[in-house]
Write a structure and sequence with these properties.
The chain is 83% helix and 0% strand. The protein contains ten helices and no strands. The chain has 406 residues and is mainly α.
């Protein structure tokens, strides 16, 4: 039984063709050459399937072929979506397989026929095209005739200009011949003048050369004296620069020393402030704990056993916290004293070394640095702190270890 025209036009294949065409356009944006060719052929196949819509429905004995094409186009959407998401994905083999199936179903489908209305429209377009071509040929012929007239006019003007130029050339030749005779006469007079001028120039050049040699000799002597004076002045400037360099180095060292000393002083003040805070807190907690303990002892006959245990635990905890705060205060106090002592040592070092020779001062500075930066931290909680330089005890231990190994 033939397919009805209404059912044929409402078939979902035609909307699917448009959807597949849109997916192909998106996929063509980022694929390589091989994928592009495969997608282009798929686009042509989809267009051929869409052309089946123009075939009358009665030419389809059943919907089997159309449904097969619908299934093929539906299955080709998955590889198209994958290549849109990742343009590096290769779908060429899948597209080729689908093209084989679509071609087979297209061969089994009736070919679109040309209707009389379409033939009439094509004939009308052909006549219009023929008329346009004839008009264009006529215009081209008219343009060629006009151009030929213009060429004749240009050739006539050119011949006239050549004749005028030839006449002017003859007049110019005659003028050149007359000027040539005058130039010959002037050349003879110029040779005599050049000979006289050459003799006078040679004499003056000899005098100038002698004067130049004398001037160069005097200039060399003056330049030699000036170079010697400049060398002496440069040596003096260099000596001044050395003195300024020494002064600047001392200034930099003094500035750095004062800055470090100031930092130690600031650190000492901060540690003193922290020690004071910890001490006050420890005293307050200790007094509070002792007061609570005394109150409990005075009224112990009226206190129950659980209450006594609870109050005793709280008092013990308070005294333990006060003890911890006292230890923290002591540590900060030691750290403040150590920082203050270091500040005083740094301030007294340079005045002490001022009257010593350079080598002795250098050795004393090195020993001072080892003593300052190699000693342990003042806080007893971390007495074995990091040492910037090895201490004497560490060096002695290393020497003993080396002796035992030997």
């Amino acid at each position: 039984m033939a397919v009805l025209q209404e059912a044929f036009e409402a078939f979902g294949l035609w909307a699917l063709c448009d959807e597949v065409e849109a997916l192909i356009e998106k996929a063509l944006a980022g694929v390589d050459r091989d994928e592009f060719d495969a997608l282009h052929r798929l686009s042509e196949a989809a267009a051929a399937v869409a052309d089946l819509r123009n075939v009358p429905a009665w030419r389809f004995p059943n919907t089997g072929t159309v449904e097969a094409l619908l299934a093929q186009l539906e299955s080709v959407k998955a590889p198209l979506l994958s290549v849109i998401e990742d343009p590096e994905t290769s779908i060429r083999d899948q597209i080729e397989a689908h093209l084989v199936q679509i071609s087979a179903n297209l061969l089994a489908s009736p070919a679109p026929a040309t209707s009389p209305r379409q033939a009439a429209e094509l004939s009308t377009l052909t006549e219009k095209y023929k008329s346009g071509i004839g008009s264009a040929i006529e215009r081209a012929r008219q343009s060629a005739s006009d151009a030929e007239d213009e060429v004749r006019k240009v050739v006539a003007a050119k011949d006239h200009a050549i004749a005028a130029l030839t006449e002017q050339l003859e007049e110019l030749k005659a003028s050149i011949a007359a000027e040539k005779a005058d130039v010959t006469a002037q050349a003879a007079r110029l040779d005599t003048a050049l000979t006289t001028s050459n003799t006078a120039f040679t004499t003056k050049m000899t005098d100038w050369q002698m004067a130049l040699d004398e001037g160069l000799k005097n200039a060399k002597e003056s330049a030699s004296l000036q170079l010697q004076e400049n060398a002496n002045r440069a040596e003096g400037h260099l000596e001044q620069l050395r003195e300024l360099e020494g002064q600047s180095r001392k200034l930099v060292e003094a500035t750095a020393r004062n800055s470090i000393s100031t930092e130690y002083g600031i650190h000492a003040k901060q540690q003193n402030r922290a020690a004071t805070i910890w001490s006050v807190c420890a005293v307050v907690l200790a007094v509070g704990g002792l007061a609570a303990l005394l109150v409990m002892v005075n009224g112990i006959s009226e206190v129950t056993t659980p209450e006594a245990i609870w109050k005793t635990s709280v008092s013990a905890l308070t005294l333990a916290i006060a003890t911890y705060m006292g230890r923290e205060a002591s540590g900060h106090r030691k750290e403040a004293r150590d920082a203050k002592r270091t500040q005083l040592d740094l301030n007294a070092l340079e005045p002490f070394l001022a009257n010593m020779d350079v080598d002795t001062a250098h050795d004393l500075r090195e020993q001072f640095a080892k003593q300052i930066f190699g000693r342990p931290l003042a806080n007893s909680k971390d007495h074995s702190g990091f040492a910037w330089l090895p201490t004497k005890e560490a060096a002695a231990t290393e020497d003993k270890s080396a002796g035992s190994v030997a």
